[in-house]
Design a protein that fits this description.
The protein is α/β, with parallel strands linked by helices and about 140 residues long. The chain contains seven helices and five strands. It folds into two domains: about 25 residues; about 100 residues, Rhodanese-like domain (Oxidized Rhodanese, domain 1). About 45% of the residues lie in helices and about 10% in strands. Strands 1-5-4-2-3 form a five-stranded parallel sheet. α4 links the parallel β2 and β3.
Length: about 140
């Protein structure tokens, strides 16, 4: 008990961070996260569709080749554009994985079953030395 009292800030931080890690599993929310290597395999083996939900300026600075650009704010309005891909795996990415997690939840609510979040986003993709493009 004395340790907890002397280190209350650290204990609180550990509880909060642990809760944040476990919360998506408890609520059933979120989506399955993929590493860049897993995403590449899914793209190559199962013809996965990549949706980039970053803002236009971020998209223009570099994105995964073949990705479709639909900002998070436009996703609900533009679902009809990706409706034809419901049977294929969908990989959603953003800069770090936060916005794409929210987009994954929206897609699941819209009836997309195979939805995956690129863990770490484009940052992780670049750290894995995978290519990006500035075209289209």
């Amino acid at each position: 008990m004395e340790f907890v009292q002397q280190n209350i800030m650290w204990v609180a931080l550990a509880i909060v961070s642990g809760t944040m890690l476990v919360w998506p599993m408890i609520t059933g929310g979120g989506s399955q996260g993929l590493s860049p290597a897993q995403a590449t395999l899914l793209m190559n083996r199962e013809d996965a569709v990549v949706i980039d939900v970053r803002e236009t300026g971020e998209w223009s600075s570099g994105h995964i080749a073949g990705a479709r650009h639909i900002t998070l704010g436009q996703l609900d309005k533009r679902l009809s554009e990706i409706e034809k891909f419901k049977g294929r795996p969908i990989i959603v990415c953003c800069a770090s994985g936060n916005r794409s997690s929210s987009a994954c939840s929206q897609l699941k609510k819209a009836g997309f079953d195979k939805v995956y979040n690129l863990s770490g986003g484009i940052s992780a993709w670049l750290e894995a030395s995978l290519p990006v493009t500035t075209k289209g």
